[in-house]
Specification:
Structural class: alpha+beta
Strand order of the largest sheet: 1-3-2
Number of domains: 3
Strand content: 5-15%
Shape: globular
Largest sheet: 3 strands, antiparallel
Radius of gyration: 23 Å
Number of strands: 14
Helix content: 40-55%
Amino acid sequence: MTSTTSSGARAWRQRRGQPPEASAETAAVLRLLLVRPWLIAGRDDGAIATVRRNEAAVRDALARLGWVLVVDRDFVRLRKSPPVRREAWAASGPGPLTCSWFFLLVAAAESMPPRVSIGQLVAAARTAAAEAEVPAPDDRPERHAILAALKMLDERGVVERLDGDINQFLRDDDPPVLLAVQHHRLVHVIANFGVADPVADPAAWLEQVEREADPARRMRRRLVDDTAVYAGDLDADEADWLSRRVRGDDGQPLAESFGLHLERRAEGAAFVVPADAYRSRSELGDCPFPGGGTVAHAGLLLCDIAEAEGIVEGERPGWRGVPQNQIMEHLAVLAERFAGRGWSAEHVTNPPGLAAEVIALLGGANLLRVEAETWWFAPATGRWERLAGLATGGDRWHSLMP
């Protein structure tokens, strides 16, 4: 899709004094930071060098979102706001047990020496669990959760594997695995803070860390952070911003600073990744759609069915509803059609389980809401799919949600 730069956007870029080639480099590294908010020396040296070359422009763009960029001697960390749709992120993110052990390991790592065995770190985390009155039964699900948490810490460069096979922890309490604790990175693990007690009053704590009083900043974050923003989800101030400012010097230039295109429709708006801006799906975030596999294929076919058969209500402009019982009927027919022709046996024999996975996939991409026994398919699954900017071969919609 070809983008035409507005005069407001050109003026904003001129004020920044950034040449076109630097703007393209800045946009690429900004998109990279959305997908990988930790850049670690030795693994991401090229990206870190790009951030340093364009640090002023990167900080300028992130400041409009209220996000903080930490540039240290051997890492770069983007500290951003929580996911726009927490429930959707939680559905596709690590499980509660993995999250608990992630922070138990962080707490334990603080008092560890720079080099520590995996057994020593896990033992210290178990002590922290006992102090916090967190159950630690040492069963197989817990070991899988600890292993997943260790891999998350290694991915962030906070507790890195130096030697050995970390997977051996599933069979051995103290396998020959050496870890490096990067204490100067530990303080940057938690990006958002609230003064409320997350244990005594988790709802109040979540409300504090997610709160953003400025509607303009809320809208900028939603457009950068999510697949699309729908008009029916907005309050009066947010709707006013979408109506008056998204195309002006507040929305369009922000999209261009990330190398994205603004798509504005009556049903809402989206910042779209151009087809020439990425080489692989991994660069688009953790919730690409449609992708491959049975669940993605079923979701895509249901989107087509909703476009052809879905009901439209005035309170949901552009959304198409299909009763859940009809969805199940369609899935049963599709399962019979594709049995032995690409669909996995476990999904063919279990349409309710397949339906649940489709809900998680489409809901994560902000393309589906299930309410009152009705599946509501978002406008982007129908009207927007025919736009060139949203149709790039087999990949039509992508979320940049972290």
